[in-house]
Amino acid sequence: MPELVDALKAAVAAGTAPSPDLRLALAQTEDTGVLRKAGRALAWLTDPEGRLRPLRVSVVAACTVGPLEHLLRACLVGAGALPTIALAPYGTFELTLATGDFDHASDLLLCLLDESYFLPDDLDVTAPQAAADYVEDRLAQLGGLIGAALGGTEATLVLHTVPLPRALRDTMLSLRTRGALTRLWHRLNAGLLALAEEHPQVQVVDLVGLLAESPVAARDQRLHKYADLPYTDGALLLLANEVRRIAQARSGLSRKVLALDLDNTLWGGVLGEVGAEGVELGGLYPGKSFQDLQRTVSRLRQQGVVLVLASKNDPGPVEEALAGHPAALLRPEAFSVSMVNWAPKAGNLRQAAETLGLGTDSFVFMDDSDFERGSVAAELPEVAIIDASGEPAQLVDSLVRHGWFDVVELTGTDLQRPDLYRARSLRTEFSGGFGKAEDYLRALDLRVTIAPVTRFTVARAAQLAARTNQFNLTGVRFDEAATLAMIDAPDRLALSVSVTDRFGDEGLVGAVWVARDAERWSVLNLVLSCRVLSRGVEFAIAGRLAELAARAGAEVLEGRFTPSAKNGVAAGFWEKAGFVPEGEGHFVFLPGRTPDPTPSWITSLGGTEDTANTRENEEQGA
Prior knowledge:
This is D-glyceryl-ACP synthase. This protein has about 625 residues and is an alpha/beta fold. It has three domains: about 50-250, Rossmann fold (3-Layer(aba) Sandwich), CATH 3.40.50.1110; about 255-400, HAD superfamily/HAD-like (Rossmann fold, 3-Layer(aba) Sandwich); about 435-620, Gcn5-related N-acetyltransferase (GNAT) (Aminopeptidase, 3-Layer(aba) Sandwich). Helix content is about 40%, strand content about 20%. An eight-stranded mixed sheet has the order 16-17-15-14-13-12-11-18, with helices on both faces. Helix 3 packs across helix 4. The protein is globular and about 85 Å long.
């Protein structure tokens, strides 16, 4: 794919970020030669328009990293990031972690390991179990180094399981002895995986498991002997792609919506030709493969992926087939939006995005038709596209292999998201019966609850900070560690925003981070899910902040707005809320003296008074 590298070079030379279609092509490329060239070309990438998410990565290694830097950069740009990658000097693995001699502002700290870190040089091949204490001690030392490194950073530290080289294993002639070493190595890798449970900032990639299912070799013996490089390009690409998935989830670059075709995608055959009873679904191959895909899609929905049906069919037969086919695992209610008609699919996806209140860049589209995929790619290059043609047995792998929907941690809102967006669709239908927008909003019976972030809601608040782009006032993305630190800090305040209406509970949809002293409260950032925009919720938040600031005795409440490529919808918010401009991007409000901006159709509920009063008393020495 030399044309891909040439296009990336052209973007770099022009001083612009690669277009969405180029980034998606990069994300789905598996040719290590192409990715190495792409990574080198992208080393000088700039993004003056702010289309990519800045990402700082530090790499420390107990071995030679080889082309990892280039492969990693290519993968990260493919995910929509603008990476800055710093490599620690060779041979300084333990020293770097122990002394914290890396960029503490890093978002990711990647540790590259091989078997030599854990095994003694004088391993007794007749009794490898004798090395168990040594291996366990090295694992404990690594855990201590990780604790020291994480003490001064909010970075996510990425480890990986370590393959046992076949040459070493086969050196042991006794089958029992070989089995003993293998058991020891499985315990080591289990211990590495357990580090993620001990440290919230740690993520562990199961490289051993990936290699077991991949056709690539783990090691090139010549490169290992010549350059102390323990992994092949293919193995390093497996690792780089998993790091990309972690960065994607951590930075809020994952997708939210899966749009699906029906014919020859969710079932075999064409419904209009064979009828509901004639489609291939369930039973033996290939029907079993289509049912497996439906099962996987259902599991994704259970974890918060929003489903859209995008099929060129007549609605009646589709409804009948989904509701009545005994092997169907996706019923009509599984889809938050159903676009079943004969219109172009690109337009249908745009309409579905408007109904959901999401951007099309949050969509993944799966279809078997070359024409439909090509049409959507041409009109909506930001949509990730999955080819459902070809071998039905590969459908599930095609859907999940790139990790489009990964999140760091599932929250309660994630689990409710599909139903929340289905309710949004119902709200859209409901709004058609009103002549005035305000009459519709009053009929919704909106209730907004603003409460302190707790240890139970901090994950969702951090997720909103990472994933919200449209109504994100400053772009400062407070992660879980930073938000946790604010919970007990007397000069900081982190608030969550929840919304309910006549159609149900929208869940936790917003968050606010505030710096405060006796005289002045400063909003460091305010984010709000696009799911509840246009209902006045943001003005209820401003009103509540003003009320709390006045109650604490503050004379000024200030807000900031930092424009980005995606947050134009939030421009002008502070002025509309009654704040007065005071310098570029800076706005002030006088609590208790400026009118309350809370809309009359919203009931704003408490939950912060006790916390606010308690902290106020503490600051006054009560």
